[in-house]
Amino acid sequence: MADGYLESHQEEYEKRKAAWLKKKGHAASRNISRPDDESL
């Protein structure tokens, strides 16, 4: 019982978080790659 409860609330949380981040102007997940040469 508890697992289903937590899973459903986690899904709702992720949806709210994604909507909030989208409204805020950020991508849900950002992958910033570093340049090969760190001196840049």
What composes the largest sheet?
Answer: none
Series of secondary-structure elements, N-terminal to C-terminal: H
Roughly how many Å apart are the termini?
53 Å
Question: Helices and strands: which structural class?
Answer: mainly alpha
What does this structure look like?
With 40 residues, the protein is mainly alpha-helical. The chain contains 1 helix and no strands. The chain starts with a helix and ends in a 16-residue tail after the last helix.
Question: Which features characterize this protein?
Answer:
single chain, 1 helix, 0% strand, 40 residues, mainly alpha
Quick structural gist:
57% of the residues lie in helices and 0% in strands. It starts with a helix and ends in a 16-residue tail after the last helix.
Q: Can you lay out the helices and strands and say which pair or pack?
A:
Layout: H1 2-24
